[in-house]
Structure formats: C-alpha cells, structure tokens
C-alpha cells in the first residue's frame, strides 16, 4: 500500500511539474531570434569583467610570490649553478615584463573596444611596418638569450679532464641509488650487469685491477671545492639523477654511461645556516609539529624534526616506488671527506669477506 | 540585421544535387559518410573521452592535496586499487598515464581537429563533402575502436599502462618493472596503432579535399585561417605520425618477439635479460619526432578557430592575414626539427642540445607574431562579447603565459634544473592543454548552430562556464610553477617521503580546490550542450553575421550541403566593416560584413585579397 502511494505521489508530482512548465512556456513572450547573441548590455558587462580578470591575473601573481617565494630553491650550491641562476633571473625578468604588458594590453583592448550599436570598427587589415617591428624585436632578444644560454650550456657540459675531477659513479636501480668511488687511483673498474653476482651488486669486473680499490656506498659524500665528474649507470629502467640544489641533472640509461660534472661550493653545514634554508626549515618543522599533534590524537608516532640535507632524487618515472627513490648527499671539507672515505671498505675487501 | 545582399549564384554543372537517397537510422547516425554527422560523432566521442580524462585528473589531484586522507570515491572508482579509500601508488601512475594519453590524443587531437576539420573544411571551401566520404567514415570508426580498446585497457587485471604517456622503454617494455607494462601496455600500443591509422586516413582526406575541392574563386589566399590551420595540421600529422607508428611497432617487437631495438644490459628481478645493443634514447628520438609536432597538431586548429572567431566578433579583418599564414607554416616547419628539446639531459651528445636550443627558441618568433596580430585584431574593433569570443581572448592570454615559460624550458642550460619538474607540467598545460581546450570550446559555442541545425547554446550558462573555467585554470596552473621551481619532480605519488617538500602542501591544496571548482563547472557546459542540442533556441541562418560560406547553407542539414548550386567566391573571408569609396557607409549599406559569395561592388576599392 505504501509503495502504491509513493508511486502515486511521484506520478502526480511529475504531472504537476510538467503542467507547470507548460504554463510557464505559454506565459512566456515568444523570444526574439537573437536572444542568445550578445547584446550591448552583455558586451558592456563582459568588457568590465575582462578588466576584472586582468586584475585577477595580476593579484594571483603577487599573492603567489608573497605566499610561496620562500618555498623556492635556495642559492645554488655549485659553481656552474650560479650562472644558471643568473640566466634564469634574466629570462624571468624578461618574461614577466613581456607577460605583464601583453596581458594588460589584451584585456584592456577587450574592455575599451567592447562593441555597441553605434560604434564602427576600423577596417585595418595589414601593416608591414608593424609586422616587421614585432618580428625583429623577438629575433634580437632571443638571439641574445640563445647566445648566453648556449655559452652557459657548453661550459657546463664540456668536462675538462685537466681539472682532475673526482670520479664517482651513480648507480640507479629500482628503487635506490648507490655510489661508487674510484678509490686511490680515481679510476672506476669496468662493470656490466652480466657480472652481477652475490655481493658484487654493481657488476664490477673482478678481474679488472682498477676495480679492486673501488668503494661502493649508499650515502654520497663530496669534498667542497673539487670538481666531481659523475658517471651514471642504470641496471633496469630509465632513471634520472636530479640534484636540485646543485642545478644538476642527468638521465641514467641502461646500456650506456652518461655523465655530468659540477663543483660543490657550499658544505651541508654552511647551507644549514643559509637564511633562506633556516626560514624554510623552521616553516617545515612548524607544519610537522602540527601534523604530529594530529597524529598523537590518533595514538600514532609523531614525525621527526627535520634537518636540512642535500638530496639526490629520481626524476624519471621508474616504477611504483619512483616517489621514494633518494640518496642523501653530504658536502664536507676535504679532510672530513678523506677520513669518511678511509672508513669505507674497498670492493676487494667486500668480495673476499 | 539585413539579410545577405545579392547572392549571385551561378549554375553549377559539375554537381548533381537534389538526389537524396532514403536514409535509414544506421546510414544516417552510425555508418554515416556525411562530414557533418562524422564531425558530430568525433565531437561526442571526444567529449566523452574528455570527461573520463578529466575525472582521472580529479582523482590524482585529490591524492596530491590530501595524501593522508581516505576517500570513499577512490574505493568506488578504483576498486582493488582504492581499498579503504587509499590510492595505490601503481594506480596513481596509471591515472597520470591514461589522463595524458586521453587528453593529448583522444580529446585534443581527434576531438578538436577531427570535429572541426570535418565540419568546416567542406563547408568553408564550398564542397559538397570530403574527397572520400567512405574513408572519412572508416577514419571515425577506427578512432572509435581505438577509444574502445583504450577504455578496455582500464579493466585489465594487472592494471592499465602506467609508464607515463611517453611510454619510455625499458619501463614500458618489461612487465617485471611495473605491472601496467603487461596486458595494459599491449592494449595501449594496439589502441595507439589504430589511432594512428585513423589519424592518417583523416589527414590525407583533409589535404586532398582542401587542394582539390575548393569552389570557383576560392584561391588559397582567400581561404579562412581555420582551413589553413587544419590543412597544415593534417600535413604535420602525415609527416610525423608514421614515425610513432614505427616506434610502437618496434616496441611491440621488443616486448613480444625478443628483439632489442630499445633494450640493452638489463638486470631485473634477479636475472640478466638477453637484450643487447638497443638504446632507450633511440626510442626517445622516435617518440618525440612525433611527440613534438603533436603539440602543434593540437594547438594549430585552435589557433585557426580563434583567428576566425576573433575576426568575426571584432567585426574587423584578422590583422596580417599573410603573416598569420606564414607563421603557421613557419611553426609547422620548425615543429619537426625541435624534438630534441625534450631530451637535453637524456644522455645524447650535448652538441645536439645546442642545436635544438637554437631551433626551439626560433619557434618563439612566429608565435610572438601571431600573438601580436591577435591583439591588434582587437584594436579599434567593435567587440561582440559572445561566449566564443571570450574563449578566444582567453586563449590568447593562456597561450602567451604558457608560451613565455617555454623560453625557459627551451633553453638547455635552464632545462637542466627544471626538466621533469612541475614547472614543465604547468607550462604545457597552459600553452597546449588549456589553450587548445579553449580553442575547442570557442569552436563549439561558435559553430553549435551550424552543427545542430540552427539551435544555439544558452549564453548565460556559457558566461558562467567561461568565467569560472578561466579563473580556475589560472588558479590551478599558475601556482604550479612554484612547485616546479621548488624542485619537486612530476609523477610523484606523494611527496611525503621528502620532508624537504612538506611546505608545498598548501600550494597543492590550493591547486586542487581550483581544480575541483573548474571540473565542477564543466557540468554546466555538459548540461548546456545536451539541453541546447534538443531545446536550444533557434537562431537565424547566419547568427554571428559571418562572411564565410558555411553560413550560406540552409539550417536543415542535407547531404551535399547546398540545396542549389555551390556558391562561388569573389573575395577573402575577412571583409568586415569595409567602407565604400567615399567612406560614407559600409560597402553594403547598413551591413558591416560582405559574405565571400558577394561579387566585388562598384563602390569599393579592390584590395589584393
């Protein structure tokens, strides 16, 4: 019985809605043919909204900088990095200059030239001089940027062997990093995945004398002020060794050895004192404290306090745990580095163990 | 608004019009060879795929903003990968992969170019249909099959393809490396292979039609910019899609037949694979040889649509028609020699990086010319703020914003530190994703009356849709640049493993909130679209007072487009607000536009168009 009543109510409700919509339809004056075309009133409203939108873009830009500029990377911790930062700054100033002006003009035109019945548009189809001007200006500006960029790029990528760089292999596998130092001879032993066996996880050729003193570690230590030449290898899929604080990145490709070199200039200890980093870390720890409080309510363990460390991330999609493939980097004085390295076992020691 | 003046239609002897066959439901709505119906089929399929792709982005945006939160919605939609409302890392990668694939190929390539090339090429050049209606039908149904297979791949046991939309091997080649590289990846490759066949058939048809079937008087320099854009897009497609096809074929062989095109020296899951001598970098070259032109395949049709809509609604000729065509050609040419800028740090020779930096930054020049020309088209116009016009203005805005950051990405030295971070994600979403989507929407609102026999979309709903989307899109992607500059890599399921990135949490929340609002307002569009299809108000034959030929056809769709003879063309398509010789009134008194099929009048100066 209830079900019947419910059905009846629904049907009656449907009929009443239908009848009401009929009444509304009949009551309406027949709309003019052009009612879906912008009227002068629409043109006016939308023109003003365009100016409002321009304000929105500008305000969004300002607010974003105000809120989030402290999340950005600190000054570069490598020699070439400051040149990249410089080029970045110039490019940014340029694009903000062009962006602010063109957005302004675009939306202002949309506002000021909004149409009405009396206005007449200007038939203006061509102007070779104008076209020439706005072809040649980008040409000149871009020529400058290209030349600056190319010099920077070539300097970064061409490694001078005379600098006697420290040779370090970065070895990528799903989902961790290992580093191999050349040892006393600063030369890496030959390696291939086909030689991987037991503790010899990097497939270093046991017969190669250069490989005997190699040292394999899971934490990257670098002496400050000395050029480091990284040789990258991957054993399974593509990975990318990304060291954002040093403005350094190179893909690790199975089947080939890629390389990237840079000179670290700021030790970990110094970077922890950097104003930008101090502020950022304080901010992060506040966030972590709040989260820990929330966790404590649920009876879970609180988060550890964060201390800054350089980090090597994987930046090429490599599988399920891509988001957590990292290695700590420590930049320290030459002496600290040497004493740390001396403690690490060589490959020969590991293999005979 | 006066009606068209003096249409001198000359008897056309070459076409036999007036013979209309009886059509069944199947031949009219399903296996139709009529370009107008095929265009609608492309549009509806494209919009459906768009809904799927955008919903996926909603899921991973939720995950990124609130990684610790449990969402019932995950449990409902993701099944075993969303147990207890926690998203599985593997399905996160699957979502970003399929989102990218669907949006780039199925929505912005087939949905945009497929819809509007099919609709406008015959109508605007004055042809009764495509050169081959049958191939056109085959092209659509191949696209449909490919969409269907892509959808099926979502339900594979081990999960859909999840190696990123760029499917770099070895990750995409080895099921041991990631579960999605099993059956899911096989279906992905099959789907794309069929998609490429569809795209090639379509493109060849477009090219032949534009070259051969233009009506009398329609010289290449009188073509509307839409047609130029579709024509050039089709050519880029023919040049570059076959390369992706061969790459996909080689990948299939590496996966299934033990070849080693892209694989070498691999130790995975405790064993050494036999592959030797291949190179993943080779795949990257092949992929981006298509992949980069692909972004222009996406953006050029949008540029064409925007040029056309903007001129019509400014009541002015497009500024610098010849420069617009030249810059389209320049962009198309340059697009085929810049692919290496995706590979600066792939391990290829750094000298190549220099070459590609040079060619890449050159593309900024024609792009700048186009942007300045659009802005000048607005200058001293009489802007009619129809919804399509708003999308066009917003297109120029996002194209400039996204294009400018391209100057940073394209510089190899700067790319080192922002490669594969959220900076690139923000860049390409603005310059190609959002911009192309705006171009698509401009086209939908503008040509809706042409597609649905005179029915028009509701403008109030259109305005709401536009403003919320325009604000939301910047709200999502402008802050995203900061996340990238902070050093956060893309495709991270969660950044909680790095306390260093903890302070990015609130940016992520802001982006996600904007994303939810933007996605929600698309419902308004869907409602408006479907409602107007059946109940939209009828407009006039030429609602926007445009000059192009499609508005000379009858409201009711007929096979062959024009009931009488095909109109001839006597002028270019941008005679808006042209004055007579003594500048006392418009050439046609009281009417600020001269349709292309109106012969030169005694009282007007002949320009070189």
From TrEMBL, chain A:
Catalyzed reactions per annotation: 4 Fe(II)-[cytochrome c] + O2 + 8 H(+)(in) = 4 Fe(III)-[cytochrome c] + 2 H2O + 4 H(+)(out)
EC number(s) from the headed UniProt entry: 7.1.1.9
Cofactor(s) for this UniProt protein: Cu cation
Membrane-spanning ranges: 6-27, 48-68, 88-111, 132-151
Any GO BP: ATP synthesis coupled electron transport
Record flagged with keyword Transmembrane helix: yes
Membrane topology qualifier: Multi-pass membrane protein
GO CC annotation: plasma membrane
Domain annotation Cytochrome oxidase subunit II copper A binding: ranges: 163-343
Cofactor note: Binds a copper A center.
Keywords: Copper, Electron transport, Membrane, Metal-binding, Respiratory chain, Translocase, Transmembrane, Transmembrane helix, Transport
The protein's role, per its UniProt record: Subunits I and II form the functional core of the enzyme complex. Electrons originating in cytochrome c are transferred via heme a and Cu(A) to the binuclear center formed by heme a3 and Cu(B).
Family of the protein in this entry: Belongs to the cytochrome c oxidase subunit 2 family.
Name of the protein this chain belongs to: Cytochrome c oxidase subunit 2
Naturally occurring in which organism (per UniProt): Aequorivita lipolytica
Taxon lineage: Bacteria, Pseudomonadati, Bacteroidota, Flavobacteriia, Flavobacteriales
TrEMBL record, chain B:
Pfam families the UniProt entry points to: COX1
Presence of keyword Membrane: yes
Domain of life: Bacteria
Entry's Gene Ontology molecular function annotations: cytochrome-c oxidase activity; heme binding
Leader sequence residues: none
Transmembrane portions of the chain: 42-60, 91-121, 133-156, 187-213, 225-253, 286-307, 319-339, 351-369, 390-410, 422-445, 466-487, 507-531
Keywords: Electron transport, Heme, Iron, Membrane, Metal-binding, Respiratory chain, Transmembrane, Transmembrane helix, Transport
Gene3D superfamilies (alphabetical): Cytochrome c oxidase-like, subunit I domain (1.20.210.10)
Cellular component GO terms, alphabetical: membrane
GO aspect biological process, one term: electron transport coupled proton transport
PROSITE patterns to which the protein is assigned, alphabetical: COX1 (PS50855), COX1_CUB (PS00077)
Membrane association type: Multi-pass membrane protein
Similarity annotation: Belongs to the heme-copper respiratory oxidase family.
Protein name: Cytochrome c oxidase subunit I
């Amino acid at each position: 019985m209830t079900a019947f009543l419910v059905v009846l109510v629904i049907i009656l409700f449907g009929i009443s809605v239908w009848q009401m919509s009929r009444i509304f339809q009949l009551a309406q004056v027949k709309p003019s043919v052009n009612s879906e075309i912008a009227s002068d009133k629409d043109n006016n409203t939308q023109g003003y909204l365009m100016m409002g939108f321009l304000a929105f873009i500008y305000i969004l830009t300002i607010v974003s900088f105000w809120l989030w500029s402290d999340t950005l990377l600190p000054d570069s911790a490598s020699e070439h990095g400051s040149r990249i930062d410089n080029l970045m700054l110039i490019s940014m100033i340029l694009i903000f200059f062009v962006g602010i002006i063109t957005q302004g003009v675009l939306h202002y035109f949309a506002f000021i030239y909004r149409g009405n019945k009396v206005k007449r548009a200007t038939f203006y189809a061509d102007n070779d001089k104008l076209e020439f001007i706005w072809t040649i200006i980008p040409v000149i500006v871009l020529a400058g940027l290209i030349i600056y960029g190319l010099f920077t790029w070539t300097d970064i990528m061409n490694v001078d062997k005379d600098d006697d760089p420290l040779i370090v292999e970065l070895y990528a596998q799903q989902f961790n990093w290992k580093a191999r130092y050349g040892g006393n001879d600063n030369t890496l032993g030959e390696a291939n995945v086909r030689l991987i066996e037991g503790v010899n996880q990097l497939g270093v050729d046991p017969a190669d004398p250069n490989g005997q003193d190699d040292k394999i570690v899971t934490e990257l230590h670098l002496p400050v002020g000395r050029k480091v030449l990284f040789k990258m290898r991957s054993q399974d899929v593509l990975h990318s060794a990304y060291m954002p604080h040093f403005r350094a990145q190179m893909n690790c490709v199975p089947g080939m050895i890629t390389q990237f070199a840079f000179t670290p200039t700021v030790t970990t200890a110094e970077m922890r004192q950097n104003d930008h980093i101090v502020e950022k870390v304080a901010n992060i720890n506040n966030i972590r404290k709040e989260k820990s409080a929330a966790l404590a309510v649920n009876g879970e363990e609180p988060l550890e306090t964060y201390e800054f460390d350089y980090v090597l991330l994987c930046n090429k999609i490599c599988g399920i745990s891509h988001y957590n493939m990292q290695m700590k980097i420590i930049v320290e004085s030459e002496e600290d580095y040497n004493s740390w390295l001396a403690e690490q076992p060589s490959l020969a020691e590991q293999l005979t163990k | 608004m006066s009606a068209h003046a003096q249409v001198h239609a000359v008897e056309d002897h070459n076409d036999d019009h007036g013979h209309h066959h009886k059509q069944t439901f199947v031949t009219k709505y399903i296996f139709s060879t009529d370009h107008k119906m095929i265009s609608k089929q492309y549009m509806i399929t494209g919009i459906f795929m768009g809904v799927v792709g955008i919903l996926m982005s909603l899921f991973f945006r939720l995950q990124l903003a609130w990684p610790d939160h449990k969402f019932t919605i995950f449990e409902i939609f993701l099944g075993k990968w969303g147990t207890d409302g926690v998203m599985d890392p593997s399905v996160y990668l699957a979502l970003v992969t399929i989102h990218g694939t669907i949006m780039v190929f199925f929505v912005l390539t087939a949905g945009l170019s497929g819809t509007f090339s099919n609709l406008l090429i015959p109508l605007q050049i004055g042809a009764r249909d495509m050169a081959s209606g049958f191939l056109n039908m085959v092209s659509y149904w191949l696209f449909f099959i490919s969409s269907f297979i892509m959808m099926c791949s979502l339900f594979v046991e081990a999960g859909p393809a999840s190696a990123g939309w760029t499917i770099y091997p070895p990750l995409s080649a080895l099921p041991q490396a990631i579960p999605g590289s099993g059956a899911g990846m096989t279906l992905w490759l099959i789907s794309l292979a069929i998609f490429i066949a569809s795209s090639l058939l379509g493109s060849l048809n477009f090219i032949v039609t534009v070259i051969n079937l233009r009506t009398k008087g329609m010289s290449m320099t009188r073509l509307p910019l839409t047609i130029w854009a579709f024509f050039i897009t089709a050519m880029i497609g023919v040049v570059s899609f076959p390369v992706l096809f061969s790459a996909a074929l080689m990948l299939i062989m590496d996966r299934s037949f033990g070849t080693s095109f892209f694989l070498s020296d691999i130790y995975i899951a405790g064993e050494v694979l036999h592959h030797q001598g291949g190179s993943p970098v080779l795949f990257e070259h092949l992929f981006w040889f298509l992949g980069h032109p692909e972004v222009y395949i996406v953006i050029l049709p949008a540029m064409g649509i925007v040029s056309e809509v903007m001129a019509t609604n400014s009541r002015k000729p497009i500024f610098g028609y010849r420069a617009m065509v030249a810059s389209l050609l320049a962009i198309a040419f340059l697009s085929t020699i810049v692919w290496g800028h995706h590979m600066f740090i792939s391990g290829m020779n750094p000298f190549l990086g220099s070459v590609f930096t040079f060619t890449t930054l050159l593309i900024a020049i024609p792009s700048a010319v186009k942007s300045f020309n659009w802005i000048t088209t607005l200058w001293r116009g009489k802007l009619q703020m129809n919804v399509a016009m708003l999308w066009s203005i917003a297109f120029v805005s996002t194209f400039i914003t996204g294009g400018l950051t391209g100057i940073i990405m394209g510089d190899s030295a700067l790319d080192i530190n922002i490669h594969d971070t959220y900076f690139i994600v923000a860049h390409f979403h603005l310059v190609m994703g959002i911009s192309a989507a705006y171009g698509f929407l401009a086209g939908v609102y503008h040509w809706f009356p042409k597609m649905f026999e005179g029915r028009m979309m509701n403008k109030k709903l259109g305005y709401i849709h536009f403003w919320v989307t325009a604000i939301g899109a910047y709200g999502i992607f402008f802050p995203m640049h900061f996340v990238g500059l902070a050093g956060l890599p893309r495709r991270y399921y969660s950044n909680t493993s790095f306390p260093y990135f903890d302070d990015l949490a609130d940016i992520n929340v802001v982006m996600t909130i904007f994303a939810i609002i933007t996605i929600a307002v698309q419902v308004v569009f869907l409602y408006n679209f479907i409602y107007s299809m059946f109940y939209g108000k009828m407009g006039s034959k030429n609602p926007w007072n445009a000059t192009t030929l499609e508005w000379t056809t009858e409201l009711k769709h007929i096979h062959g487009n024009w009931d009488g003879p095909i109109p001839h063309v006597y002028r270019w398509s941008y005679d808006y607000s042209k004055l007579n010789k003594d500048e006392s009134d418009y050439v046609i008194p009281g009417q600020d536009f001269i349709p292309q099929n109106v012969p030169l009048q005694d009282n007007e100066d002949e320009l070189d168009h």
